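User: I need a structural model of Zinc finger, CCHC-type from Tanacetum coccineum for a docking pre-check later this week. Nothing fancy, just the predicted C-alpha cells so I can convert them on my end. Input:
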Amino acid sequence: MKDIREADVILGIKIKREVKGIVITQSHYIEKILKKFNREDCSPVNTPMDPDQINHVEGSSSMSGWVFLLGGGVISWASKKQKCITSSTMESEVVALAAAGKEAEWLRNLIHDIPIWPKPITPISIRCDSVLTMAKAYSQVYIGKSRYLGVRHSMIRKLITKG
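Assistant: Understood. Predicted C-alpha cells for Zinc finger, CCHC-type:
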C-alpha cells in the first residue's frame, strides 16, 4: 500500500496543521515580492480582520464576485455576500450572474458616453464556471418557483440579447 501524505502546499498556499485547526499562509510569496523590490527591511504589522467577515466565513451565505478588465487592466471588481437566500448552487450562480450583468451594463453605458471611445462597442464577455447556470441563462423560458430568480433570469436574457 502506498504511503499517502497530506498536502503541505496547494497552488502556492502553504498549509500548516495545528491543534486548533489549519493555518494557511503565503508568507513565502510575500518574502519573494519584498526581495524582488528590494524591500526586505520592511517591518511586519498586524492587519485586523473585520469580525463580520469571520462570521460570514463560518456561515452558509453565498458570495458573489466579479472582475472586469479593459486593455488588460482591472477597471471594476467586487466580492460581497449575496443579499438573498437561494436553495441551490445553480440559483446562487444565477444571482451572481445577474449582479455581474448589471455591472457590465453600467460599464458599457459609461464607455459609450466617452466621446473618444470607438463605436460600436464590442460585446462584453462574462465567463461563468457553471455549465448548468449558463444553460439556464440561455434558455428562453425560466421554470422556477422563485419570482425573484425569474426576474433575474429575464434581465440576464435581455443582456445576452443586447450583447
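Before docking, keep this in mind: Residues 89-113 form the longest helix (25 residues).
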